[in-house]
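A reminder from the course coordinator: this example appears on the midterm review sheet, so study it carefully.

Given structure:
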């Protein structure tokens, strides 16, 4: 899942996930926390890339969700939030690989 405005980090995440064979679910930045939590639960998210400008809404959605996805933060002023998208992008080459999944596996 990606919760970010139209930024370079959003585009990088979208195409990086596609390159890994993962499904990117862009989230509407105007949804309420309850709606975001429902999407987190419904799509069985394992990760969330969230812009720090939407941290309050992301935190509220995560608190309401039954899932505990890995959260990576992008955007300005991280306020000590980690891990950061920029750090992930420059991490050890080969550390992130695509998962094998069956053709009939849910997206």
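Designed residues:
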């Amino acid at each position: 899942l990606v919760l970010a405005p139209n930024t370079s980090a959003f585009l990088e995440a979208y195409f990086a996930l596609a390159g890994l064979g993962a499904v990117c679910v862009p989230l509407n930045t105007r949804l309420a926390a309850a709606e975001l939590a429902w999407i987190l639960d419904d799509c069985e998210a394992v990760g969330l890339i969230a812009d720090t400008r939407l941290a309050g809404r992301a935190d509220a959605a995560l608190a309401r969700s039954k899932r505990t996805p890995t959260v990576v933060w992008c955007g300005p002023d991280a306020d000590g939030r980690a891990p950061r998208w920029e750090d992930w992008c420059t991490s050890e080459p080969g550390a992130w690989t695509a998962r094998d999944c069956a053709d009939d596996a849910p997206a």
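Helices lie at 8-20, 33-42, 55-64, 85-89. The two ends are 12 Å apart (CA to CA).
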